[in-house]
């Protein structure tokens, strides 16, 4: 592994994530029109497109030969599996679009570099309140330049649990509620934010102890199933930053982290295991 | 209503006191937090911060209004609370978001509010981690760090971001919460549980959320006091939301709002109507 190169990549993803954040703040609170397609509750805005262009421009100025794939690109998902092997930059230029449109504070830009299916450098910038999270493989994680560590939590009943909910159908809502009934009484606290990136970063920064995304009913496993909508643009960044902060990450069944889909992020392996055991008991 | 100058003064005192409480929060973050979590002394730690922040608030209020009473959650008796609120008294929640604080999260604040004739008159909530000072005075508007704030103005439930909080380990309570969640989510745009109550109330006043109400509100008063609510935070929330153009309604019963009970806070009255239509009995 080329540590110097990854450190350089880290500086580039930081610069790119900040550039996207600067675009967000130009648009923030201006009541911008909701342009182009709308996947119910998931808006694509002009700010989104412009932030993506800003990210690409920064990367091109440092690594002009490299491939950059953004969530807003056409056929982005089809290209990503192959390029995760050969090496590429991925970006979700605006995570938490609904939060952004509603002038909330939990939105961010996400940029990472992946090669041989391993995330090597990643950055997440939250303009509110100007927090820049980043990591390079084997070089630790930081927030605004200061090292961050996950909490020391090991017990589920004392853990601050972060859930994210994006289910657009009543069936999914019902499933989510059943899962919630099971998990809520077993944990020490419950939070739901409007950006999955910041859900993961609260765990990385030791502000909460475990984050699990929306589970699914139609599933090969007993409880958690394939994600409704894959998120390869942001997931590598969450995985790398949480791992480099000392946390444990697995896919929804306890296996190796899934860079294309959803994972559970925890302060410790022990905590992660207790959660997965509990989650499997959902009827 | 009080004279404008007096209200402005009380608002400034509330701000100064809330900031003094915030300074105590800051002092206890960091190293100390790490140690207390490790040693399992969270409760002691929170009590110490709570107590010291309350003393800091009291000191500031006493400096400006030496003869006025400051009532906090940790007080022992609330028997004469209605009389106090009529005559004029200060409330403080020196650390709103204890759970958030002890878990290392940023969403906690110090709240200070003055109530007279049963009406919230001036208040402040200070978030140390974000350096955000929310304040309001009756008829004089609400501000965030000195700039006027407004609610979103959202009046369609389908486009609204709903915020709430949950605490507890009882299975039945979680089931009740989950039931109401399933009933509500198909009708709203977003569902958030961001932290302490003041995160939601202040966020609503600033247009970040559109609705704030508990889905598992306590119906019976706790043993320690003769009312179900938390006036040390509620009085401030009512004032902040109304002064930023929002709507407040008691969760149950009559009147414009209920300082001693639970309320629904919203960006517009129409949102409350639609919420009640969808949810029935909250």
Tell me about this structure.
By secondary structure, chain A is an alpha+beta fold. Chain A folds into 2 domains: 3-147, Fructose-1,6-Bisphosphatase, Chain A, domain 1, CATH 3.30.540; 156-279, D-Maltodextrin-Binding Protein, domain 2. Chain A has helices at 3-27, 46-62, 76-86, 97-101, 170-183, 196-204, 235-244, 269-279; strands spanning 38-39, 42-43, 68-70, 88-95, 108-115, 118-126, 131-136, 141-143, 146-147, 160-163, 189-192, 210-212, 248-251, 263-266. Chain A has a 7-stranded mixed beta sheet with strand order 3-4-5-6-7-8-9. A 5-stranded mixed beta sheet of chain A has the order 11-10-12-14-13. In chain A, a hairpin with a 4-residue loop joins strand 6 (118-126) and strand 7. Chain A is globular. Chain B folds into 2 domains: 4-148, Fructose-1,6-Bisphosphatase, Chain A, domain 1, CATH 3.30.540.10; 157-279, 3-Layer(aba) Sandwich (D-Maltodextrin-Binding Protein, domain 2). Chain B is 41% helix and 20% strand. Chain B has helices spanning 4-28, 31-38, 42-64, 81-87, 98-102, 171-184, 197-205, 231-243, 269-279; strands at 70-72, 89-96, 109-116, 119-127, 132-137, 141-144, 147-148, 161-163, 190-192, 211-212, 247-250, 263-266. In chain B, strand 1 (70-72), helix 4 (81-87) and strand 2 (89-96) form a beta-alpha-beta unit. The longest helix of chain B has 25 residues, at 4-28. The A-B interface holds A 41, 98-99, 102-106, 129, 151-153, 157, 160, 165, 167, 170, 173-174, 176-178, 180-181, 184-186, 188-194, 202, 205-209 and B 34, 37-38, 99-100, 103-106, 130-131, 152, 161, 166-171, 173-175, 177-179, 181-182, 185-186, 189-195, 203, 206-210.
